[in-house]
Description:
The structure is a homodimer.
Chain A: E1 3-9, H1 13-24, H2 26-33, E2 36-43, E3 60-62, H3 65-70, E4 76-79, H4 86-96, E5 100-103, H5 106-123, E6 127-128, H6 139-146, E7 152-158, H7 161-173, H8 177-187, H9 195-198, H10 201-215, E8 225-226, H11 234-242, E9 245-256, E10 259-270, E11 282-289, E12 293-300, H12 304-324, E13 350-359, H13 365-375, E14 380-384, E15 394-404, H14 405-415, E16 426-430
Parallel strand pairs in A: 1-2, 1-4, 2-3, 4-5, 5-6, 8-10
Antiparallel strand pairs in A: 7-9, 7-11, 9-10, 11-12, 13-15, 13-16, 14-15
Helix pairs in contact in A: 1-12, 4-5, 5-10, 7-8
Amino acid sequence: MQQVNVGIVGLGNVGTGTLAVLTENAAQISLKLGFDLRVSAVCSRSVNTKQLPSSLGGVFRTTDWRELVARPDVDIVAELVGGTTVAQEIVNEAIARKKSVVTANKELMAASGAEIWDRAIAAGINLAMEASVAGGIPIHAVLREGISGDRITAIYGILNGTSNFILTEVEKSGAAFDDVLAEAQRLGYAEADPTADVDGYDARSKLAILAALAFGEKITPSDIYTSGIRRISPMDFQYAHRLGHTIRLLCAARQTPDGLILSVRPSLIPQSTILASVQGAYNAVWVRGHFGEDTFYYGRGAGPNPTGVAVVSDLMRVAREIRSGSPDRVSPFAHPRLGEYKPIPVTLQKSAYYLRFLVNDQPGIIASLSAILAAKNISLDAVLQLPSESKQSLPFVITVEPTSERAIREAVAEMSTLDFLTEAPLALPMEKAL
Amino acid sequence: MQQVNVGIVGLGNVGTGTLAVLTENAAQISLKLGFDLRVSAVCSRSVNTKQLPSSLGGVFRTTDWRELVARPDVDIVAELVGGTTVAQEIVNEAIARKKSVVTANKELMAASGAEIWDRAIAAGINLAMEASVAGGIPIHAVLREGISGDRITAIYGILNGTSNFILTEVEKSGAAFDDVLAEAQRLGYAEADPTADVDGYDARSKLAILAALAFGEKITPSDIYTSGIRRISPMDFQYAHRLGHTIRLLCAARQTPDGLILSVRPSLIPQSTILASVQGAYNAVWVRGHFGEDTFYYGRGAGPNPTGVAVVSDLMRVAREIRSGSPDRVSPFAHPRLGEYKPIPVTLQKSAYYLRFLVNDQPGIIASLSAILAAKNISLDAVLQLPSESKQSLPFVITVEPTSERAIREAVAEMSTLDFLTEAPLALPMEKAL
Lengths: 434, 434
């Protein structure tokens, strides 16, 4: 075999970036591999009108992915269409035909990665999914190869670029969440329906994949406690800063003696931590290892070119394995276990908390709130009130010593019935150990 | 083959950490690999008095590395002795016997990595060296696999933990370099002879390896311009901070239209860059890719356990390749070229510069210095003088617009003859683009 042939399905952002990297870096790729990596076929609904890099030459074009997958001159199928319906069919068909697969599809791999991997191993092919999480950060290579000898105790991530862009804009500009979201939509940084990004579902899929890679467990995304950033306001950043912290949509997976606790939620993190320096649409992953201690990885979370690099790097690795006759033998969702893994409830997590209130000012407020906390054995850490213009909707903050999420939820539920509150308290964990 | 067998040569810090990771994580390693990774033999001059993890059981012990390498039950030799004399012999003998090799030896790989790799490929074995640079950061896996599809345009690193510890201590405490060095020696963070660390030679070896991995060139360490941190004083941090910067021993390898420029030298970097948050003995690598843009990697630079994780992760990868019958086929020092690669001289580099003077105060100083700069066509950016007690050894700083290193060196040489200077000017590049 003088070359390994790639068929690309999907010519949207990621497909276009992948073709750009493959063609512009072709000479270097051949040097690194010792053989050529050639695009033999492309598939897209708009393939006949799409402008392709001229160096691709007379590549086979089709609008029918089945035709591409069936071609004998396609050794690796790059599934870059996204979603879970057609994408699942493409991957299944490729595996059935014993073609290796590279995918950028976080949704599909979070929902069905374990099953897909099992079938890939049974078929004796290779599967790779670096681009499915944090496009520009090679976190799969890190977890599967680079630090595979370590036992991971925790992973923290900033995995949704849109949310991080919005949060850091609210932080810098002091503008309200809704205004920043509207501006992000106008600029194309946020989608018309921003739910997947700002409510944490996109980040949740990515955390499910990372946790699988790190802990060898098959995680069901809906088992991950998920809460979005819609309630975070400029005043929360003011209070957080005064407390030496900032606020990020933090994805966390922690190994505890009782099992894994997973969550995606806005959290206070110390301003001194390297994670706090992640601005705008960048992503980052913080890994805590039993032996290797802390490592940290940072880069573009998305974009055609950074994601294209991830896809091409996967194609190179898989091509090398094909040339070596070395199929995947162990699933990254691997450690064999009967059925699905159930993380333990987030209510068992212990943490310090930030409680922010909006009140109609009157005597006895602190007394009422602190009585509720005392009754739950929750110790106050600090009470903080920054100058405010309004007496009708006056913000102030209580921070509490580490306690269980369950106790905080019970306290917040009880507080929510108090008539001096103009909205329900906002409770955010404070991640002091980062 | 039910297992892959490892022989460990060297039971110092790294060897001890490697054994700890291998034995304590044995169950997880077997799950990830699908087979066992067993230590079959250990070698050390003090092997008879060394306490080994009890789970190693009746492992073969020897003080003679030749005996270990020759054993049929050793599939992979882990060379963890360091240095370039015996280590070179061990690696050569292992390759001659067609055993795969994992090494943590930066000095050896920087000096002879390209030749060793060529012999490994000719012998059909596997070679790995993750632990040779930035122990806890899996930067080899990142460059060889994770982002291998990209074309790297620059690498910046903080690669010597001792220097970074000393610099950040000088920065925080305001104590003099010599005092901080003495304290670091007392605490065991710096060696009795600190030359390799504080004069940049250790970092230089690491940069040579990283540049080889990133650019596919065989770099001779002595071709890298290297300057240490002995002249950096608390006042330099005061001035740097006032300019919005901090100072780090920066390793840099940049691709220019004319070739690679490599340097290891104390440099001003913006306080806002994520690289500036690297404190104490931590290491970091910043990679700029043509398509993937910026990625950043951070972790422990040394220590038995983090380095042990790197060695064990390499052992796992090599064991997998052995089981797949998949020897290394392309050298990371790879892109075939006749003879050695010569980086272009650092004097061709363009940069803004920080010039710090100590003067015996008298009229006309600025006029004399700025006349010299003007004669070299160097434009002043700022002149800065912080309050000082001494008139006899008065510090002040000039920053200049981007100019060539050659022009700055000529200017500094000319300035050094001026009789009002109490010591030669200190010139440091300002890395504004980080």
